[in-house]
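Quick one - inputs below.
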Amino acid sequence: MSSAVAKEKNYLNASHTVKSWLLTVDHKRIAILYLISISFFFFLGGLAAFIFRLDLMTPQGDLLQSDTYNRLFTMHGVVMVFLFLVPSIPATLGNFLVPIMIGARDLAFPKINLMSWYLYMIGGAFILFAIVDGGVDTGWTFYTPYSTAFAKTHVALTLVGIFIAGFSSIFTGFNFIVTIHKMRAPGLTWFRLPLFIWAQYATSLIMVLATPVLAVTLFLAALERLFGFGIFDAAKGGDPVLFQHLFWFYSHPAVYIMILPSMGVIAELVTAFSRKRMFGYRFVAFSSIAIAVLGFLVWGHHMFVSSQSPYLGVVFSLISFLVAVPSAIKTFNYTATMYKGSISLESPMLYTIGFIGLFLIGGLTGIFLSTLATDVHLHDTYFVVAHFHYIMVGGALMGYLGGLHFWWPKMTGRMYNEFLAKISAVLVFCGFNFTFFPQFIVGYLGNPRRYHFYPPEFQIYHVMSTVGSTILGIGYVLPVFYLLYSLVKGEKASANPWGAKGLEWQVPSPPPTENFTSPVVVTENAYAYPVREQKA
Amino acid sequence: MYGKFSLFPEQASRLAPHIDMLYFALVAISLFFVVVICSLIVIFAIKYRRREGNEIAQDVHEHHLMEVGWSLIPLVIGLVLFAWGAKLFLGIYEPPPGGTMEIFAVGKQWMWKFQHPDGRREINDLHLPVGRPIKMTMISQDVLHSFYIPAFRIKQDVLPMRYSSTWFEPTKPGVYHLFCAEYCGTEHSRMVGRVFVMEQADYEAWLASPIIEGGAPREAAPMNARAGEAAAVAAAVNAGEPGAKGKAVLESQGCRACHQVGNPALAPQLEGIYGTQVELADGSKVKVDDDYIRQSILLSTVKVVKGYQPVMPPYQGVVNEEEVRHVIEYIKSTSGSKK
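Output:
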């Protein structure tokens, strides 16, 4: 089965100069550039979290000054949201897979794709410089008037960094939209597309429509901070709550930018490791679009106690409940896909099962927060922190790691150590729950988020959380070693090591620069795994 | 109660048991779905594991009815929860029933300042009588803050330049946490306080006591007030007039030069206007409420009453929030019991 003829050219060995990487317009190489960059920022953001979690071992915070603590949680949020989670799956797995999965040679605009990586790096450099030169202490939400008139840290520099990185996201989004519309292989109709493509498409719509609003909002905040504009400053007749409306108009859909691609990955994994087509393909496909659309109409659920009209709160609560339906459909259908399948529990499948469990808890606790009366109590407490980590780490990151393990042989042409990968998947799952589950309890008890000091009766939960985060940390560091080791000593991967369906498994591992050597024609649905008749 | 290990916070307000009931319903529903889905995954992973004789998946017929069914079930459960939550939530915003005690709060980096109906002030400590609805009217002197008492299950953001309010009824004497829940800078996590819920008699005894527990003496150290003014205020208050402090502020700030009692020639009358509608220079109408009065003092040129020139100077930075509050109380006291 192996197509690895020793001297066969692929996208990795096509050329070796630094220039050939930095000026590449090959979507696969750009995906690798992104992979290296976002991994760097992931570990930077993780390090910040680990330091303040250590500090939170004691109620009086023995390790850090309050100012340092505030800068660390801000750095964690800004780096993880804008430099890791938002680009994570689309820019790495998406970049690598979207053209191959639809039978195309590259994305529609390869040079814009490269520019998008450069914009990301420039934005990242601004943020990195702000961190190194003293940091920023507003929280990743930049609420006014604190951020515009009171904070004495690098707010403007960070805002500019996010502004620039935002354009990389817009470019990726529209590149994907055009590619998916115009470059599908003959025979690859919309309802034959892998669900990963549907998810990338829905995500791209949000990126293109919501990110400009973030850009405008941050631009206005920067103008106010630098030149004293009075848009959000109540003392000048502005409105600080307006900032929250604008900010969440992007940042709620941004949650779906993070989770939808992960749902797409899970669809590929659950079908591949159950050797079965997706149960209710069309329902899953349309639920991605439904989530993308409804996601634009729920931003006010972050603001139930902000002084917005209570009647507005009622409307936002109702629409938020509607988002529960497509999310539930996905969870039920992933589970139903396993029914009567041929299930093998290799490491990507372990991540998939972990995803379903954690996303389920994340989604259900989201209902606590879209319920108006309980949100009044839970808003801005650790309950919210736990909830969104279940979605954005338990959901988005588990999907990303599962996808990375699944497509690693395709991207690198090497197999990693499966035993270590299983250990790491289990460590991540257990460490994650250990870290974040206690935060639901301490949140209901009333511990506000972003608190450096806290009442001593909450300590037990914080100690559990810190211990859990150590396990989680080991689970994240382990893959760095065995994945890098696989590049040197890993067994050569065949074209289709998992026996999965999909165009990407029909090309060699790693694929040649031009992806396909002969024209592609698609004649079957996605996930056309063979089935046997049920016994009576 | 305070400083003890627990899984749930103390229920110390009329609202708290209702919120907890809804919370437990949510926990029960969540547990149900988690147990069902997780059991199915484990059962499927074992029963349909890949092995000899199960290398190929079995054909499963898809029922659209089933899909629609499991879309509708979450929808129906969701709508019930939505209605339950919304009903309780709107109750928090309904005008408090009669007999409400109003407490004024100022949030600033990084402390809470409170003012009781009789003018008594305290910092970070809040003494409250049990069994009486209490309305909090709050404003921030700088950034956003959020007034949060977990034992009461209430939270309300506190904004600069705009009053926000919430209400609750303490039902259990004790000492409870007060937190600032909206990140507000360096010492955000030190912007905390204690809420003392006391029997009515104890509360009255506390009001009458000369020294606040661990706090400032009653009138000896009014916050931010200028010394001479503090004396005038004290004298007026001792006379026992309602709204006396506001009256004293009006005198000491020279407001009476234009706002003369019974003479609207130079400036609009202040007496009796609370709760009425006034027409502005641009023809629009506005109801005289707390926010309008406050804005008319601090940003006096923004909403000028029809027929007058915008000659009053803005008092932003001249008077503090407590003084503005006194003036509002005075205007209220001359306007009957319209709230």
